[in-house]
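USER:
Working in pairs, take the chain set out below, taking as long as you need, and write a paragraph about the fold.
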Amino acid sequence: MKSRVAILFLLALPAVSFGQAKPAYPPLPAAVSSLGAVVCDGHLYVYGGHAGKTHSYDTKGVLGTFHRLKLDGGTKWEELSGGTILQGMNLATHGGKIYRVGGMQPRNEPGTPADNHSVADAAVYDPKTGKWSKLPSLPQGRSSHDVVVVKDTLVVVGGWTQKGAGEKSEWLDTALALDLTATKPEWKAIKQPFQRRALTATAIGTKVYVLGGLDVTANALNRVEIFDLANGQWSTGPDFPGGRVGFSPAANTVNGRIILNTSEGSTFRLTEDGKDWEKVGTSATKRMVARLLPHGAHALLVGGASRNGNIGDIEILTIAERGEKIATAAK
């Protein structure tokens, strides 16, 4: 009798889904790849990005919108003052402000041949005033690069200059540095021992780690280059694991360690001695041209592109405390 009553009680309950748990955060305002993203003062900020079809660029498919989401209990994106439509750039933060440097801007209408231009604009956003202010322009337009902050210096690495329809793009062989404490800041050129774009970068202490990218022959490289701002010297680290995963991986510094996610979905961590990589997780969605951002002991994967198009979700990456060692040889 008790079993029959229990069965009738269960049948009377509303249907419950035991599928995938509800996402921790709402999706991006638009599914985008090649966007700028950064965490600052408890908020996730996202700017621009490519919202069109893969390899299709026009004034409607690239965005100039700017939003933020509160990471602690945020349920809705807040629209902020945006600006120029841009992709192929990133954001950095310093002193509670958001920095945006360069990027690619299509100037052609939908359905017409691509006319892509790398811009030299740089700007800083102050959340307290809600306004953008201009920074010194780059020496020339730059896109498909990355930007990080080392101490009080904004550092730009990699990229190329796209000059519009019918013009050959120029691959850049200099990094750039801007002292944010200077009364009249000026960009300083730093000789770069490589020419690559579609790379990612992060920093620990005085060192900038440049990971992956495409070279001038369109080869995707799993290379790691390290620039020490303290002595102005370049060195190399161990290649990261995987097949052809060098095109636009995502990386950042999480709990003082470099974390990298590739298009194969694998998440790696550079060992403390800087000589090897260890596998510390796998993302639920394989993506490239995404952004990886610190989130406590874990990380956030934001946007990106997959074989099915642009991605709008934010995935929390669980990072294993102990990784699976994957030996690689430093070059």
